[in-house]
Recover the amino acids of this structure.
């Protein structure tokens, strides 16, 4: 026995040492793989306007916003909300290092007087005003705010932090407004520009145009050589500037509850059913045993759960029914109490004939008499009803006191038995033929509900992981990935042009861990480990990478080829059209079936498309360069070649005052200033965002 104890003690110590070395090896392997220790840049999350942003600085900004969130909402942010807070922290750092530099360059500052004005003066910040509004008077309570400031030094540090964040955001917002105003005030719209806008909105063209779509010319009749494609690409390279993206494709092994999992939950509720029957506090019992947030409620005969409604005639207090299966899982219902409610409920159908005149009343009475003579109420409602209930046979369902206009409610709620009312009922909406389906009742039902989700069990989860793990270990590049997915008939889902800070991957929802792998560890052709998501195991392979800068010629070659082929087809069509003469109709007949003539009688310069042609702002612009009676030369449109004849151009008469149009243009230009400034400053700051390596 002593020998056994000695071995046990030594083996225990040895086990601790082995575990210690294993953990150390794991940590070192992770650091070495990611360069976390030996690469200096592993403590950096990016760069803004030449300033390196460390993970410590960024995390401090994140924690400030998380603290403020906790104070505002009295709870920790969820995992779904944390990305938003991180983005707010990043935006704050962009403002601090990129925007502040621009503010300082032009001397934009916020004085103490301005701060006082926003806090206590004539221009109090709306958020502050709302927080310190007296609930009794509805007015801003200055004394209450001043008391808060006096107590601030003695309040919790987090409260003081929240105030500093608010005050800083207030100042930054004012600086931003002042900076934007410097540029906004330089905007000016001339009278000539205002007049041009007036004409653009009011000049009307009546045109006739011949249209030949590009697709009418076969691809085999035209071609573009490689040199032209490359020349086009080089001349317009800026059009193909892109952010860095990576692409992947993946297979998922869904974790779907099995029949055994379903049976387990059903059996579990069958056992719970007996306890439920004897529970004294049904609401508490349901809340403790239910997976759903809704576990107790008051219902009427119309709103009862379907399974209880079907058995309403034989329900009594204390009955426990179920388990029933629906989209939320299995459910047990207990009828806790049947009560007489202060609210009345009834069920009815109606046929509404709109109008308050004798004709409407006569028509309604005629329909009522047909139903009395044996006509089907539902069929008559579908034929004659004039409101939204007509397509369901006039059925209004159950409704409670106060939901219908007084005359209608009185007629239904005073009925002593179900059936067709003897006379039509007039309301503000017209005349109603009413069938009472269920007479008024004040009976209400208090029901406790235990809901259990059907979740996959350990065996189901293990089976899905085994399949995913076997697949991952059997492939090591794109070729083997494609081969095995084809052999096993697995569904492959592509996810193209993902960005470093993306969180969603096509149908997978939030799959941040996959995006992190894609940008921090993967190279083209690499196959991932098995990723565990909420409802599936996923294996991915990286398929492509586009580095920040310009799209490679190879990736846009097909797009350019299509565009240049269109131009070549335009030349073929134009050459054929140029050899024809006569009216547009005669030219179309001579050209053949691919040419058609259309008209537009109310075309405005602000339009961007033509009827039967589609989006084509170039063609619309060409229209208004023509005089009445003038016919254009063939025009290269977006979708085909056009020849346009100006039948008549109605130019809006000059007016004495164009100020309305001047104001419209100024508002449009000024509205674009904020976004334009923001994008320009960010571009100049040459922001490098590498947060993806950490989050």
């Amino acid at each position: 026995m002593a020998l056994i104890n000695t071995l046990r003690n030594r083996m225990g110590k040895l086990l601790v040492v082995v575990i210690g070395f294993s953990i150390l090896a794991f940590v070192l392997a992770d650091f070495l793989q990611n360069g976390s220790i030996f690469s200096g840049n592993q403590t950096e999350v990016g760069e803004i306007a030449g300033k390196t942003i460390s993970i410590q600085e960024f995390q401090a900004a994140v924690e400030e916003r998380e603290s403020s969130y906790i104070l505002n909402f009295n709870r920790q942010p969820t995992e779904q909300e944390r990305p938003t807070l991180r983005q707010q922290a990043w935006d704050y750092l962009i403002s601090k290092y990129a925007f502040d530099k621009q503010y300082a360059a032009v001397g934009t500052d916020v004085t103490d007087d301005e701060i006082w004005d926003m806090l206590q003066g004539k221009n109090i910040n709306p958020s502050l005003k709302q927080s310190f509004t007296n609930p009794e008077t509805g007015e801003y309570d200055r004394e209450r705010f001043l008391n808060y400031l006096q107590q601030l030094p003695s309040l919790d540090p987090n409260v003081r932090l929240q105030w500093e964040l608010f005050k800083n955001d207030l100042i930054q917002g004012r600086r931003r407004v002042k900076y934007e105003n410097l540029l906004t005030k330089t905007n000016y719209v001339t009278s000539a520009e205002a007049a041009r806008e007036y004409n653009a909105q009011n000049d009307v063209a009546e045109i006739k145009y011949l249209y030949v779509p590009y697709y009418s010319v076969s691809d085999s009749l035209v071609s573009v050589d490689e040199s032209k494609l490359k020349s086009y690409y080089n001349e317009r390279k800026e059009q193909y500037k892109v952010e860095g993206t990576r692409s992947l494709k993946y297979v998922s092994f869904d974790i779907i509850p099995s029949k055994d999992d379903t049976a387990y939950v059903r059996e579990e509720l069958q056992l719970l059913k007996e306890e439920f029957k004897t529970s004294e506090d049904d609401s508490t019992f349901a809340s403790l045993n239910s997976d759903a947030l809704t576990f107790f409620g008051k219902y009427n005969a119309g709103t009862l759960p379907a399974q209880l409604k079907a058995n309403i005639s034989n329900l009594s207090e204390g009955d426990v029914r179920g388990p029933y299966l629906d989209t939320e899982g299995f459910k047990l219902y207990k009828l806790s109490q049947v009560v007489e409610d202060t609210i009345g409920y009834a069920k009815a159908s109606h046929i509404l004939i709109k109008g308050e005149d004798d004709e409407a009343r006569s028509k309604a009475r005629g329909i009522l008499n047909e139903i009395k003579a044996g006509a089907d109420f539902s069929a008559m409602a579908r034929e004659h009803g004039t409101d939204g209930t007509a397509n369901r046979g006039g059925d209004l369902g159950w409704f409670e006191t106060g939901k219908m206009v007084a005359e209608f409610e009185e007629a239904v709620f005073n009925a002593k038995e179900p059936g067709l009312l003897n006379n039509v009922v007039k309301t503000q909406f017209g005349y109603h033929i009413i069938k009472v389906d269920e007479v008024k009742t004040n009976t209400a039902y208090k029901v406790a509900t235990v809901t259990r989700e059907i979740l996959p069990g350990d065996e189901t989860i293990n089976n899905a992981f085994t399949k995913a793990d076997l697949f991952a270990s059997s492939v090591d590049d794109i070729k083997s990935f494609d081969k095995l997915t084809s052999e096993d008939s697995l569904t492959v889902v592509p996810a193209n042009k993902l960005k470093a800070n993306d969180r969603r991957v096509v149908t997978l929802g939030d799959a941040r861990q996959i995006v992190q792998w894609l940008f921090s560890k993967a190279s083209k052709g690499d196959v991932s480990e098995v990723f565990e998501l909420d409802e599936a195991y996923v294996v991915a392979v990286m398929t492509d990478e586009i580095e920040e800068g310009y799209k490679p010629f190879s990736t846009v070659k097909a797009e350019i080829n299509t565009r240049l082929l269109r131009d070549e087809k335009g030349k073929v069509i134009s050459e054929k059209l140029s050899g024809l003469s006569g009216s547009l109709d005669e030219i179309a007949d001579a050209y053949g079936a691919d040419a058609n003539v259309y008209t537009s009688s109310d075309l405005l310069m602000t339009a961007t498309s033509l009827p039967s042609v589609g989006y084509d702002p170039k063609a619309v612009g060409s229209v208004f360069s023509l005089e009445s009676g003038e016919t254009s030369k063939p025009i290269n449109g977006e979708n085909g070649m056009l020849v346009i004849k100006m039948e008549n151009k109605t130019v809006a008469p000059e007016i004495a005052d164009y100020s309305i149009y001047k104001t419209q243009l100024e508002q449009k230009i000024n509205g674009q200033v904020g976004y334009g400034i923001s994008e320009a400053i960010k571009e100049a700051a040459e922001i490098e965002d590498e947060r993806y390596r950490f989050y």
User: Anything to note?
Assistant: The mean pLDDT is 89. The first strand starts at residue 44 and ends at 48. The longest helix spans residues 2-34.
